[in-house]
Design brief:
Length: 841
Amino acid sequence: MPSNADKATVANSVAEERQAVFEAFRRWGYLDADLDPLGYWRPAPSEELKELSGEAAEQARRIYCGTIGVEFWHIPDKRRREWIQERMEGEAPPLTEAERTRILEQLIQADCFEEVLHARYKGTKRFSLEGITALLPLLEEIIETAAERGAEQVQLAMSHRGRLNVMAHVVGRPVTDIFAGFEDVDPRSVLGSGDVKYHLGATGVFKTARGREVRIHLVSNPSHLEAVVPVTLGRVRAKQARRGENGAKLVLPVLLHGDAAIAGQGITAESFNLHGLRGFDVGGAVHVVVNNLIGFTTTPAELYAGRFATDVAKRLPIPIFHVNAEDPDAVVRVARLAAEYRYEFSSDVVIDLVGYRRFGHSEIDDASITQPVLYRRIESHPPLWLTYGRKLGVDPAPKHRELRAAYEAAQEKAEGLAKNPMFYTLPDYWAHYFGGAYDETSEVDTGVEADELAAVADALTSTPPGFHVHPKVQRLLEQRAEMGRGQRPVDFGMAEALAFGTLLREGVPVRLSGQDSRRGTFNQRHAVLFDTETEAEYIPLAQLGTRFEVYNSILSEAAVLGFEYGYSRDYPDALVLWEAQFGDFANNAQVIIDQFLTAGEDKWGLLSGLVLLLPHGFEGQGPEHSSARIERFLQLAAEDNIQICQPSTAAQYFHLLRRQARRRWRKPLVVFTPKSMLRHPDASSPIEEFSRPRFWNVMPDRDTHEAQRVLLCTGKIAHELRRERARRKDRTTAIVSVEQLYPFPAEELTAEFEYHDGAREFVWVQEEPANMGALAYLLPRLEHLSRGRPVRSVKRSASASPATGSAKAHEMEQRTLLTLAFATGQSETVEQAPAPPVNPE
């Protein structure tokens, strides 16, 4: 008879064996989960699980290989793993009869809505939810759970699939209005503006089962599907900032992705990398993949290299829940788990909702051409509301007929409306701001009195007792103190700090982010000081009044610019800035610039006051460190949608930043900032210039009387032209700097043409090649203003690349360009240095 010790040894061995079995399933069970409702995309179990059998293996298999699969073993935090483990292995509370009845009604609503659209608007794109209608109960459960934890607002981001359904049944927009969007409208009401219905944003109020009200905001989104993700995170961060310390509890982001988009679009990975970072954290987001297991006509095997579309999220220590969309009970369970996890750990969490797509990518596509076998299965597969009703033992057909009739009646009512409905209302904090065409009555004075400037300068150059400042920085602070007292000219770095400081003292919050923006790429900012002995931080601007934030961003342009654009959308009363390390790098964020920044007002009626700081200037640093592509922004400029400026002096920069914050006309501002001119005496300004009333759209030349030639330019070259004029002792050439390129300063330039009415010629001079810069935009406008007097141009020759990679070649080109600017004759082109010979090896 075995002893007690033997029994204990056996028991321990059995427990250890069971633990080993469960750990294997906790780690790999998701690979064997039953996720595809159609059985087309089969499980891919690991070899380790295939070898396991017995009672423990069967029990673990039921938990981790059913219609829920969870990836969490990569999370290094044991407490978080145990939290998920306990909830997966514990007995899940069964749904009540009322809850299941509500789920069934949601599924019927979703399909009836799509059925009526399909029947009444054939041949119209709507990107239906059929095949994954469990999204509705999933979203409702997330919102219910968040409301229990204190959420008052949920910010939704999603692409096209199911967007109209969510707009109707989660956001709560009247279905009549949505149907009306499919009816013919007065073409004059949307001529040259507006957007397709499945891009539009919407706001509404969701009422929970317990009577709480949660405001829902569905963010407007272009066809660049994942671009809305960082925009939404920025908007959430701004909303949370407005709420104070409890902001992350009160405002929840729910980000909906497509399976193809989340795997394929790089901005998603960039946005995931914002998770938990200082300056960008939102207390966790719930990510939902609306997974149809297909991208247009492309199969999962062609869409992502790993097993799952969500593999991109495994770089982070966050859980990923996969769930079969044909098991609504499991879907609701996962929704609750995910929302609870977010609130418990202030962490991102991912839900992979795996279903199918009943029709093609859009309803006008025939998907059977490319996936004939799959779509034969789909055609014979019953809708979820029918199978779920049978599972509950009820006949859902009467409810289906009732709701179908209600949606048909709403559609018939919409036929008589024939309008273009508005689906959103703006928050109250937008009441003080406006967009539209430029109105000169919106101008405000931006000058600051000398004593205020001195007070700000004192604060900017002071440090706490015992704080050890780096010797080089200490010298900079001493120089800035002298600038504030008027003892030396103010450079660009100090001008910016004075602009920020004076705004902060006036109650305007300031937020700046970018790569290395705390110090500044060119060592010009030093917004954060570091103790040389402890590395403790001190931020002088943070001591001046309201909130000042400055952050080094991740090495990303698209996600970070999207985030800051979003932040500006919900903090119009703040000065929000994004800085590119070099202006050239803004092209990595072109989607955000094209689809949101420059077109958001025209498409969606949504304003932004975001400032882009783009270092620009040809200084022999090569093709990727010279041009911020002025020409591209001018191409995008129309209907007074943006402001494009290149201030040539520190005082101009000061007034420009203050103008952007203080006037109520809210438009994005693109600023081409200097590099070599940041500290150059030519670009520095006496302190008196900071007290003059306003920014000058055009820097006039009133010192050159009876000019025979007028050189017009923008940016750094204005200073080079003045130095060349001085070298030549030329008293017959005026130099006019165009500081605001758009909106075009016609009034100010007209005044310059009239003042120099005796000039025989006007010359546009630019550093950029002929096919770049402001030439194509400005030349016809200047010719119009000149009233028949000749306008010629001096520029580099047209080029595929913005600048030469040779510093010596650049210097030669620049000297030639300056020489030609002062020559009389036809338009001149500086030939760029030839490309190096091709290495035959």
